[in-house]
Write a structure and sequence with these properties.
By secondary structure, the protein is of the alpha+beta class. Helices cover 23% and strands 28% of the residues. The chain has one domain (2-73): Ubiquitin-like (UB roll). The protein has helices at residues 7-13, 28-38, and strands at residues 2-5, 17-19, 26-27, 50-53, 56-57, 63-64, 69-73.
Length: 79
Amino acid sequence: MTVLYFAHARRITGVSQEEIPADVPLSSGDFWEKLLQRHPALAALRTSSRLARCNDFLPADALIGPTDEIALIPPVSGG
């Protein structure tokens, strides 16, 4: 699956996107565990970030498929 990083998540990972290998669909919890294995510092964003697929935020119980493109959307502020 492809993961897209924005704002603070991009600064933490040092990349705007990367491939995360998965052979089967993952729960959002399993997805986060894979991310945290690669980028432990993302743990600070876990409770405040949202996951999105195809421009739609994912519900907590959604399954994420091996070919999905997932955007990690950290909290943002603006004015």
